Amino acid sequence: MLSKRLVVCLDVREGKLAKSVKFVDTRDIGDPVSKAREYYEDGLDELVFYDITASSDERNIMIDVVEKVAEQVFIPFSVGGGIRSIDDATKLRMAGAEKVNVNSAAVKRPELIAECAHALGNQSTILSMDIKRVDVSRVLPSGYEIVINGGRTDTGLDALQWALRGEELGAGELVVNSIDADGTRAGYELNLTRLIADAVSIPVIASGGAGKPEHLYDVLTEGGADAALVASMVHFGEYTCRELKEYLAGRGIKMRLGY
Amino acid sequence: MITIIDYEAGNLRSVQRACHRVGVESVVTADPAAVEKAERIIFPGVGAATSAVDTLRERKLDEALKYAFNQGIPILGICLGAQIILEFTEEDDRQCLGLVKGVCKRFEPEDRSLKVPHMGWNGVNVVQPHPLLESVENGDEFYFVHSYYPCPTDTSNIYGVTEYGLEFCSVVGKRNLFATQFHIEKSGQFGLSILERFCNWDGTI
Question: Active-site residue among A130, A158, A182, A218?
Answer without folding.
Answer: A130
